Amino acid sequence: MDFNVILWIVIMVALLVVEALTMNLTTIWLAIGALASVFITLAGAGGVAQFAVFVVVSAIMVFFTRPLVKKYVAGRYQKTNSDSLVGRTARIIEPVNNKLETGTAFLDGKEWTVRSESDSDIFNEGDLVIVREIEGVKLIVAREGNEIPKLVHTVVV
Question: Looking at the whole model, is its pTM more than 0.70?
């Protein structure tokens, strides 16, 4: 078997292993490009043609099929009630200090465990804060007027 065929198979397998470990649908497209290069190598194409096929097929897969898969995967994500809290204002009812692991806020008629986005930020009772993200059952908050809220969940495709 030709060395280049083996090389492309090794590259393809390595990309599939990375995909299996990350499950982000990022390297699968490159693995398909490597598979196309295996076939073009078996047909007798030279190294430049093999690499060109790898790049072209990978690019086509990324630009044309990735959005369809992303739409399918993102469409299956179901937003939870807690997701709607991101970007909202909460009132601190127990001082927030990450170093002491203390902090409680009141939002939507419920008490929430709270941690500040930055360890240097300390909030006192009565302060108003913005919910930036949710980690487990804790609200991660920042001072009002800071940046746009982060997403709670990100689907990477």
Answer: no
